[in-house]
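Exercise 7. Given the encoded structure of a 292-residue chain, write a plausible sequence.
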């Protein structure tokens, strides 16, 4: 037997390539031994869905640091630099290789002069579509920091401090500027940090689907009344229906809903239909999540 992690997203990344469904699998040599069980599961799932093309890469890529849209993809600066060191190449060569693998424009998202707020971009950014992204904003938590309901609920998450939020404001602003430089519209949602980047209450780490043709987000809910509501309001402003999902203690392990969930199969949808596989919002048809 081999150990498994809880992170369903990292070793199995569905996307569309050349109009057909595909699954991105990392090369075995790029995955730590402690996660080889995850890789076995990813290979097994891939073999059970022959309509999906398996794309294997020699790059070190984790699904949590990759957001794939219709015509573009976002990747974190950390993934680029890790491969630069590992392969002895340069950042542009890694970006071009990702462009070749994914078959779409690749944008490298960085935090400017600051370190990235988290190792995985999906904890801090959500690609809504090829024009719009959501980015976390610790200022939203600072604005309600003295609210008794928020203060009490935060005790369940290791009692993060005001200073921790202030320390990552510049990094989140850097992410937002990076995306705007590449022409994306950026909306901000709350973010809360604790124990450095070990605990992040993220409202971007969400799962988006279409239910009876209605774009729907399964949105992490942390029992923080004002912040949960504020995040849901931003998602709804985009015409997306919100289904809150309590994540609770999962946040203490360094992840959230997208990290823990991956779409294997959709009911009532032809599995060869690429418009509902590996895209931020499935705009047509009815696609209810069936498994993870």
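Solution.
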């Amino acid at each position: 037997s081999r150990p498994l992690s809880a992170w369903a997203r990292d070793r199995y990344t569905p996307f569309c390539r050349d109009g057909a469904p595909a699954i991105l699998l990392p090369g075995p040599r790029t995955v730590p031994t402690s996660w080889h069980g995850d890789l076995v599961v990813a290979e097994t799932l891939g073999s059970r869905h022959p309509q999906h093309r398996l794309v294997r890469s020699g790059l070190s890529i984790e699904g949590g640091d990759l957001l794939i849209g219709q015509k573009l993809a976002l990747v974190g600066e950390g993934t680029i630099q890790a491969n630069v060191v590992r392969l002895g190449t340069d950042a542009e060569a890694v970006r071009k290789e990702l462009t070749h693998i994914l078959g779409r424009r690749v944008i490298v998202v960085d935090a400017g002069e600051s370190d990235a707020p988290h190792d995985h971009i999906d904890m801090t950014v959500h690609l809504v579509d090829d024009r719009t992204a959501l980015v976390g904003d610790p200022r939203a938590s600072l604005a309600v920091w003295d609210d008794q309901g928020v203060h009490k609920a935060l005790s369940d998450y290791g009692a993060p401090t005001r200073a921790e939020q202030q320390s990552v404001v510049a990094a989140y602003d850097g992410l937002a500027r990076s995306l705007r430089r590449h022409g994306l519209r950026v909306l901000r949602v709350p973010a809360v940090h604790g124990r450095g980047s070990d605990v992040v209450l993220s409202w971007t780490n969400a799962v988006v689907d279409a239910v009876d043709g209605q774009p729907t987000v399964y949105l992490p809910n942390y029992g923080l009344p004002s912040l949960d509501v504020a995040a849901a309001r931003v998602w709804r402003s985009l015409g997306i229906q919100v289904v809150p999902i309590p994540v609770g203690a999962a946040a203490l392990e360094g992840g959230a809903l997208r990290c823990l969930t991956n779409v294997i199969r959709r009911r009532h949808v032809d599995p060869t239909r690429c418009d509902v596989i590996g895209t931020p919002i499935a705009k047509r048809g009815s696609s209810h999540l069936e498994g993870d």
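Remark. The CA atoms of residues 80 and 91 lie 6 Å apart. Students should compare their own answers with the one above.
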